Amino acid sequence: GMSQCNLGEPWRVQMNADLKKAAAGHPNLKVVYKDAQNESLTQRAQVEELVAQGIDLLIISPKEAAPLTQPVAEAFKKGIPVIVLDRAVQGDDYTMFIGADNKKIGREAGKWAVKTLGGKGKIVELKGLMTSTPAQDRNAGFREGIDLAANKDLQVAFEADMQWLEPNARKEMESALTTQKEITLVYAHNDPGAHGAYLAAKEAGREKSMKFLGIDALSQEGVQYVKQGLLDATFAYPTGGAEAIENALKLLKGGKVDK
User: N or C: which end of the chain has fewer CB within 10 A?
Assistant: First the structure.
C-alpha cells in the first residue's frame, strides 16, 4: 500500500512515478496507491483501509506528523513493515524513514543567498506547510545559512506559509509586493512556490529587481524555470521512490534494513 498525501504538487507526482518505475521490474509486487488530496483525516482513513485490506507492507508520505503518527504506529504494531517517505512521523513506531537532509538543503540555499546578494538585501520567505517536517527544516536551515547575526545588512522582510502550493504562493507574494517597497530575493520552500512568486512579481512589473530561489529541481519543472531565466537557482530534492521499493523488497524477503 502506498499512501500519498497529495498529488497537487509535481514533486509528489514524480515520487509516485519513481515508485511505479521501480516496482514495474518486479511482477511479484502489486502496489495499491491512495491519494489523500491534502487532507490528514482522509490519509488516516486511507491507511486504516489499506491495513484492513491486508497489505503486506505500507509506504507512506504523510501530510503532517501528528495526525498520521497513530495510524502508522497501529500498522507497525500489527507486524506490517512501514516505510515513511519524505515527511517524518513522531516517535519511532515504524520500520524505516527515507528522506533527504532538508536542513542541509535549507542551509546551502541560505549560503547561496548571502553570496548572491553580497550580504545585504531584503528577503521574502514563502514556506511550505509548517506542520510538516521538511518545511520546518528548510526554514531552520535557511536561517542558519543566512546567519542574520553575522550579516546585519540582510533582513527577512516578509514570511508566509503557502503550504507548498503555487496559487497560495502567488497570493502571498502579492501581499509582500503591496507591503514591501524593496525585495531583493524570494526564497520559496519549493519550485512551484518560487514560480508563483515570480508570476506575481512579473504582473507587478518588479520581477527584474529580485532573485528567485526554489527547491526540488525536477527536470521538467525547476530546472526548466532556471533555463528559462524565471528562477535564479533550484536545489535538488530526491523523491526516494526507487529507494522505497528497493528496501520494501528486502523487508518482504525477511531482510533487515537501517531505520
Answer: C
Burial string for 210-241 (b: 16+ CB within 10 Å, else e) reads bbbbbbbbbeebbbebbeeebbbbbbebbbbb
Contact between 47 and 3 under an 8 Å Cβ cutoff? The reply is yes
Helix and strand tally (H, E) in the chain? Answer: 9, 10
Rounded to whole angstroms, the Cα distance separating 154 from 172 reads 21
Cell numbers for 230, please give them: 524565471
DSSP conformational letter for 163 = T
Task: Name the grid cell of 227.
Answer: 533555463
Q: What is the mean pLDDT of each run of 10 residues along the chain (259 residues)?
A: 95 97 96 97 98 98 94 97 95 97 98 98 97 94 98 98 97 98 98 98 98 96 98 97 98 97
Hey, what amino acid is at 8? G
Using CA of residue 145, residue 90, residue 77, residue 21, what is the dihedral sign? negative
